[in-house]
Design a protein that fits this description.
With 380 residues, the chain is an alpha/beta fold. It has twelve helices and 14 strands.
């Protein structure tokens, strides 16, 4: 038997040819392909503005900067998320205040956010966890009148929908990841989308050391204009090499989502026959891209989460533990991150795992995973 990977990017000849064309052009840094990718991604996500960056983490940092978060502020974030969600606030000297999540979706809700708000809160970061769309409208209804900015961490969200539109379309500012674990990949890379032209312009400037003249404009000029640096910026640029791959990947997005939802439906059908397992599903009002196809193991199942992962590994099937609880990580243990109870976060972190799911997963491989889960369920 060959190993079944939990995730595998869908890359091929089209991406190789796009890279070759960029290399032949002689322009490999941030340039025309990045601008083209930004425009195409903004159109796909129904966003007014898109700013390409070097990663989702740098995008989160920029998003918090442009929306005015500063040292000493509180930023409400889910603990049930990759640690970068909390780190972005920490970079600014703000305090990440952890809130709990809905035990069914793994996403924050208006109620869990409200429990963590403080007089010092200036922003809330909500996450489309594993591609499951967050219920954004009630959260904005809570936060907007308070002057609290809602930042959507849509790292996993490309191809998911909310209220009949792409996730992120209803956000004032959202951030995306193109890491190889995501549906769309550029190797590393990210995007900031926003409805506000001033925030987009500020993010564009900050990603290039806050230069008054972009690198592309300087390099395109025979006699380059003199640049100035009015504030401290960052080097958060995407390259044209990455953007060329991103443009090809964007054209594959619909096919990726369709295939992943088909495979997830097959898992769901099989799992309904296995007592003690629950597969993540579409929430009311949205559809998930199944970026992560996570499974909750309850006490009715004969094996623990760790035992089930070992059982799958014996069949050469790679699974991963579910989303981390950031408040348990050494970087945040002992820090002041608020005192909101996080029972759903801890339950999901302790009892979920991520099943293999990617575009190239074959029917025979899918069947092997289903049979391994069924065999585990019979071990009573």
């Amino acid at each position: 038997m060959s190993r079944i990977n939990v995730m595998q990017p869908w890359l091929g000849q089209d991406e190789a040819e796009a890279l070759a064309a960029v290399i032949a052009s002689g322009w490999v840094a941030q340039g025309p392909r990045v601008a083209e990718f930004e425009a195409a991604f903004a159109e796909q996500q129904q966003a007014a503005h898109a700013v390409a960056v070097s990663s989702c983490t740098t995008g989160l940092h920029l998003a918090l900067v442009v929306c005015g978060v500063k040292a000493g502020d509180d930023v409400v974030v889910p603990s049930f998320s990759f640690i970068a969600t909390a780190n972005a606030a920490t970079y600014l000297g703000a305090r990440p205040v952890f809130c709990d999540v809905d035990p069914e979706t793994g996403n924050v809700t208006a109620e869990t956010v409200a429990a963590a708000l403080t007089p010092a809160t200036t922003a809330v970061v909500v996450v489309d966890q594993g591609g499951v769309p967050v219920d954004l409208a009630p959260i904005r209804a809570l936060c907007d009148p308070l002057g609290v900015v809602v930042v959507e961490d849509a790292a996993c969200g490309a191809g998911s929908t909310y209220a009949g539109a792409p996730v992120g379309a209803g956000a004032e500012i959202a951030v995306w990841s193109f890491h190889p674990r995501k549906l769309l990949t550029t190797g590393e890379g990210g995007m900031v989308t926003t409805s506000r032209a001033d925030w987009a312009e500020h993010a564009r400037r900050l990603r290039e050391h806050a230069m008054s003249v972009s690198a592309a404009d300087r390099h395109a000029s025979v006699l380059a204009p003199q640049e100035e640096y009015a504030e401290v910026g960052f080097n958060y640029r995407m390259t044209d090499l990455q953007a060329a791959v991103g443009l090809v990947q964007l054209g594959k997005l619909d096919a990726m989502v369709s295939r992943r939802r088909e495979l997830a439906a097959g898992y769901a059908k099989a799992i309904t026959e296995i007592e003690g397992l629950r597969l993540v599903a579409d929430p009311p009002g949205g559809t998930t891209n199944f970026q992560s196809c996570w499974l909750e193991v309850s006490g009715e199942f004969p094996l623990s989460r760790e035992e089930l992962m070992a059982h799958l590994a014996e069949a050469d099937i790679s699974a991963r533990r579910g989303i981390m609880a950031a408040h348990r990580q050494p970087a945040y243990v002992g820090r002041d991150t608020g005192d909101v109870p996080l029972p759903a976060t801890e339950r999901l972190t302790d009892n979920t795992l991520i099943l293999p799911l990617h575009h190239q997963l074959s029917e025979s491989e899918h069947s092997r995973v289903v049979e391994a889960l069924s065999a585990a369920g019979r071990r009573r």
